[in-house]
Amino acid sequence: MRPVAEGSVPFLDLGRSHAALADELDSVWRSSVEQSAFIGGATVERFERHWAARCESLHAVGVGNGTDAIELGLRAMGLGPGDEVIVPSNTFIATVEAVIRAGATPVLVDVEPSRLLLTGEHVRAAVTRRTAAVIAVHLYGQPVDADDLAAACNAHGLALVEDAAQAHLARWRGRGVGSFGAFAAFSFYPGKNLGAMGDAGAVVTSDAALAERARALGNHGRSRHDHNEHDLVAMNSRLDALQAAVLDVKLTSLSRWNEERRALAAAYRELLVHPAIEHLGAAEGAEPVHHLEVVRVPCRDLVRAELSRRGVATGIHYKRPCHLNPPYAAFAEGPLPVCEEASERMISLPIFPGMREDEVEHVCSSLLAALAALHGG
Ligand SMILES: Cc1ncc(COP(=O)(O)O)c(C=O)c1O
Prior knowledge:
The protein is α/β, with parallel strands linked by helices. It folds into two domains: about 15-250, Aspartate Aminotransferase, domain 2 (3-Layer(aba) Sandwich); about 255-375, Aspartate Aminotransferase, domain 1 (Alpha-Beta Complex), CATH 3.90.1150. The chain is about 40% helix and about 15% strand. The chain has 13 helices and 13 strands. Strand 6 (about 170) and strand 7 (about 175) form a beta hairpin. Helix 4 crosses helix 8. The two termini are about 40 Å apart.
């Protein structure tokens, strides 16, 4: 395990969740070498079955990473040039990148101020004749209001797609994230709630034809019937067996880890009561999985520097909303004030399975002290 300096709190320490699984994770490597089936095969299929079931969906297609999962899913739906896809600008850049790589045009829109997520109202305001789909991003581990978004999509004949890279096993009104849209894209980047030991991702869907097309598109457009025939111009984006085996081992702990995250988030809410600190809002029916612990504070960069001085590592998600990154500016019509204001005030505090109570307390007392030092109270 990586040593952590006394009195300091890391932003993320994966070593703590891996420690309890060390023997099982070691044996994954040994059995992979013994089986010597490194790409695809029974191990990948087993994880795909398990993951689809946990997402309350019928199919999971393991792919190279979460960005590819979005691109492959969109391409499998037949989206491409001439199609517009509505995307919240408060997301990781990969969501927008994937739309462009699929050949479609992203339309970046604002989010609501409380949970910083997309709503049906934003969709209705951005629909044009060319809109084909909407990507609902379950950001920071919070599920979007899937009923509201589905109603807006249905009213305009749009496909609903989920970017669930940050929301493994989150639920909305009792239903699992990953089961609402035409497909959901998951990332298993190491720091995600369910993370591989390298890059990995999945397209999750209950549409068998979409799953089959996504699988072919990620595997050189191979024909289902003949390995040596190629029906589509495609790409190589496959889940490897080693990562699938790691994910299967870690999947058995995911619900417990999410519970730990919930308890940590509750502690933050209890300890961080201060007029200058704004927590993300709660929504009835939302069961978030707290991938990130985001709060808004004034003078964010100064607060962050002060926290660092006190040994607390923090993050920013995201420093710029997508449309303020120059290559993406053309995809938004005018300013998106909620995204822009939030990007200046958001700070992400440490939250990870295995984080100790005294560490949460240290983060909170440091943040309160930083605010007092900066604002005299
Ligand atoms: C919201 C969101 N979408 C997409 C991705 C892309 O996933 P990956 O890094 O596995 O390509 C990420 C992860 O980094 C993400 O947080």
